[in-house]
Design goal:
293 residues; globular; alpha/beta; Cytidine Deaminase, domain 2; five-stranded parallel beta sheet; 12 strands; Rossmann fold
């Protein structure tokens, strides 16, 4: 008996390389892909050879209709999309209907509330949202420090401080990261994103040992979308800001942790800049003795 053909994977793609990595991983595994590229964010030139359509952000009905037409039930939401104001979206009729299901509190709340509500609505509409890391397993790092540079006592102390701050940010549904130098919080991440936060740090750093970027999963966020992400660009921005290391949350519960794009290139970039990259279990790290800087 001939084995049934695998069902297509739907990808709702924003900007950056993440959606492309997911598409490549699925196709290498023999699974067809159909992508809806969000206009103004995903670059159609990068999707040559992959079935796709470009759709404006507010045309929700067209997006879901195209994915259904492609017979895709599993759906990955991946890539950078700048959150617009609800008034600028120009929702189509289906979008208006689904926005009512999402609810006003989610629409005007933080990212966690909105994304959780969107995932619930997608399930009610017959889709199965899955995480990018469930398709491309190499996105998450195991605990350890694969770089030549290793954190010293001062860096470990700054990481401890950063974990506390990042967790408070996450609990408030504000951001996923912060920069700490010599015990002082130089910057926290909000809607501007990690790269913009690091750019601000260039003018804020103090003399002496450089600071540390700490990025963690928000405590209550969905584990299917918007996990923290770093890559070679993050390392370059950290080096330009005068930092000496990056600490991220390691894989836990199989599919949760900080996504590391192009891991080999990220580690190579850190080695070239003399930075450490540490993936850690935040709870276990906090239980260790606080080092004396």
């Amino acid at each position: 008996m001939t084995a049934p053909l695998p069902t297509p994977l739907g990808i709702l793609a924003g900007g950056g390389v993440m959606p492309l990595r997911v598409a490549d991983a699925a196709r290498r595994a023999g699974r067809p892909v159909f992508a809806v590229l969000v206009e103004g964010f995903a670059d159609p030139r990068e999707w040559r050879g992959v079935p796709h359509e470009v759709v404006r952000l507010g045309a929700i009905g067209r997006m879901l209709g195209l994915i259904r037409q492609a017979r895709a039930r599993q759906l990955v939401l991946a890539g950078r999309i700048k959150r617009p104001s609800i008034l600028s979206l120009r929702l189509d009729g289906e979008g208006v209907r689904l926005a009512a299901k999402v609810g006003r509190r989610a629409l005007f709340g933080g990212d966690d509330a909105l994304l959780s509500a969107v995932l619930t609505v997608l399930r009610e509409e017959g889709f199965e949202p899955i995480g990018a890391q469930q398709v491309f397993a190499d996105l998450l790092m195991e605990s350890g420090c694969p770089t030549r540079a290793q954190p010293d006592a001062q860096a470990l102390s700054d990481i401890r401080r950063g974990i506390g701050v990042a967790r408070q940010l996450g609990a408030a549904d504000t951001g996923q990261g912060c920069v700490v130098q010599q015990g002082l919080v130089l910057a926290v991440e909000a809607i501007e994103g990690t790269d913009a936060m690091l750019a601000r740090c260039r003018e804020l750093s103090r003399e002496g040992p450089g600071g540390v970027l700490v990025k963690l999963v928000k405590p209550a966020q969905s584990k299917l979308v918007d996990l923290p992400v770093i890559g070679p660009d993050t390392i370059r921005a950290a080096a330009a800001a005068g930092l000496r290391g990056v600490a991220v949350e390691a894989r836990y519960n199989v599919h949760v942790g900080t996504i590391v794009l192009d891991r080999a290139a990220t580690i190579s970039e850190a080695d070239a800049a003399g930075l450490f990259l540490l993936a850690l279990d935040a709870d276990a790290f906090l239980k260790t003795e606080d080092p004396e800087p």
